[in-house]
Amino acid sequence: MYKLLKTDGRAKRAEMHTVHGVIQTPVFMNVGTVAAIKGAVSTADLNEIGTQVELSNTYHLHVRPGDKLIKELGGLHKFMNWNKPILTDSGGFQVFSLAKLRKIKEEGVTFNSHIDGHKIFMGPEESMQIQSNLGSTIAMAFDECAPAKADKKYVRNSVERTTRWLERCKKEMNRLNSLPDTVNPNQLLFGINQGAVYTDIRIEHAKIISEMNLDGYAVGGLAVGETHEEMYHVLDETVPYLPQDKPTYLMGVGTPANILEAVDRGIDFFDCVYPSRNGRHGHVYTKFGKINLFNAQYEKDMRPIEEGCNCPACRDYSRAYIRHLLKAKEMLGMRLCVLHNLYFYNHMMEDIRGAIDEGRYSKFKEERLDMLKTYDNKKSL
């Protein structure tokens, strides 16, 4: 299922065989929260720009249109017309970030819908049932994402409960996969390492969940308030205690620099809303850093967003034209920026894989990090 092809330092190059196709890692998963990438991006577009994995959100799809409806219509792949792998997150992060009123108990969490306020209960079993109805390739375990700087005693109790929830998730996933009417009987389960910035709790938790023989392991609860240095320190200390022969996923991270650094620390799955969110606001990524197309300096700039880029935006349109679209609030401007950013991320991962294959990742990382600083230092580029 997960085949480690090469290591270069702690960087891993692998391929993961799933029922919906092979994932080449390291990989960036393109975030389509409600079964669509924000910015009018279709699944045909995703194929064109080199997307390997699409990520959808359990909580949002449960609230609207409803996971039971999606199951009735043949599962999430059929519903959104996407035949490659899909990862669904457990809904845990949204329960803790969106819900102003919530009550955490051993059974699970009671909270109010952010759409109409109706009361929802979600625990490990409910999360697995929703994800089973969606039929995603990879389901994430239900966990509590404690704030990065939460009190240590609170974090320890939270992590212990997350471990108990993980055991329940595994048991329920096995039951659901054995049912005759399940959408995807080969659904995989990833567990999530938590522990805020407390490396002793992180390491202890990594050791415990590694014994559970799951299909993959995520590091959660980062990029939620700590510094980049603190995040890298947590990865340095924690990742060595997760199984090297299983995929390792850093949830919700991040910038191109974050990804380059995390690959060097043994991470091979990533997701983040940055490329689509920034694209919708005219912020586009290049190898030399991020630029803001709303800036007046691009008003007459007939170059593509990035020279040599083969994305749908750069192939046919100039910075000046895309800037005009954005200023005129034309949806095409937003769409082109999102397509460019996702293409940039997907192909950055391709370059990362090539560098690891060739045993030159450390040099590649330093060169790319240095290039990313160009626009910071020379605003006129």
What oligomeric state best describes the polypeptide chains here? Answer: single chain
C-alpha termini separation = 45 Å
Supply the number of structural domains. 2
Kindly state the mean pLDDT as a whole number?
Answer: 95
Which term fits the overall shape? Answer: globular
Helix content: 40-55%
CATH architecture of the largest domain: Alpha-Beta Barrel
Strand line-up in the sheet with most strands: 4-5-6-10-11-12-13-14
Keywords: Glycosyltransferase, Metal-binding, Queuosine biosynthesis, Transferase, tRNA processing, Zinc
Cofactor: Zn(2+)
Family: Belongs to the queuine tRNA-ribosyltransferase family.
Catalytic activity: 7-aminomethyl-7-carbaguanine + guanosine(34) in tRNA = 7-aminomethyl-7-carbaguanosine(34) in tRNA + guanine
Account of the 3D structure:
InterPro entries: ArchSynthase1/Queuine_TRR, TGT, TGT-like_sf, tRNA_ribo_trans-like. This is Queuine tRNA-ribosyltransferase. Residues 10-370 form the tRNA-guanine(15) transglycosylase-like domain. Homodimer. Within each dimer, one monomer is responsible for RNA recognition and catalysis, while the other monomer binds to the replacement base PreQ1. Its cofactor is Zn(2+). Helix content is 42%, strand content 19%. The chain is of the alpha/beta class. Helix 6 (124-134) crosses helix 7 (152-177). It has 2 domains: 2-272, Queuine tRNA-ribosyltransferase-like (TIM Barrel), CATH 3.20.20; 282-377, no CATH class. It has an 8-stranded parallel beta barrel, surrounded by 4 helices. The chain starts with a strand and ends with a helix. Strand 2 and strand 3 (21-25) form a beta hairpin. It contains 16 helices and 16 strands. The mean pLDDT is 95.
